[in-house]
Specification:
Layout: E1 5-8, E2 11-14, H1 19-25, E3 33-43, E4 49-54, E5 59-61, H2 67-73, E6 79-87, E7 92-100, E8 106-108, E9 128-142, E10 148-153, E11 158-160, H3 163-168, E12 178-188, E13 191-200, E14 206-208, H4 211-218
Parallel strand pairs: 5-7, 11-13
Antiparallel strand pairs: 1-2, 1-6, 3-4, 3-6, 4-5, 6-7, 7-8, 9-10, 9-12, 10-11, 12-13, 13-14
Protein name: Flagella basal body P-ring formation protein FlgA C-terminal domain-containing protein
Keywords: Signal
Amino acid sequence: MPPALFLSAGLAVLLGSAAPLAARATDLAGLPAYRGRVDLFTLTPRGEIDGLVLADGLEVKTPPHLSDAVAAAVRRGDTVTVLGLKAAALPLVQAMSISDEATGLTVRDEGPGWPAAVRHDDGAAPPEPRRGLRARIRLVLHGMRGEVNGAVLDDGTVLRLPPPDAVRLGAVLAPGRVVVVDGLSRSWSLGTVIEISAVGTAADRMTPVGPAANGMEQHR
């Protein structure tokens, strides 16, 4: 998938290495605002927050270096206002700032630096292998460049897999589709992530993902 084109008032940038610099140079007051209720946090396999999903399905991307700040300022169920750049063809926003109406706190992306990204080990459960988990895909998740890199199940569990595998398995990860998943599950106070090792539409139609898929290729 080509990089997603993000638009703001009078500004168009391709998300990539130059995008954060372009965004920080932009007056935030001139950026579009998106308001909604926080439905869930999206987490990386390390437990870092890399975004939010609002109740209307809008996916809000945040960089990992803001993980701790977002966790402190934003709460699930609160109404937030997001200033940022929206993808032209996806319900996806790269957040430059997030303001939580209930806490009164605002998180602003000033670029990598202090505070550093942290893993949310508070309340973390030991990793747990999952096999044959059957569930429905609620929505597909994306990276900063608009590439598919995971999905959310109906219960809010986040599935993660490398973007090349996500593209290859796009038909399987379609919203509304029931899938069967094998992988390693990790849970934190903010949510649960399953790093997929295999996925399919039925237990007898599973496709290996990530290192498992590479191992199969090497042994063919």
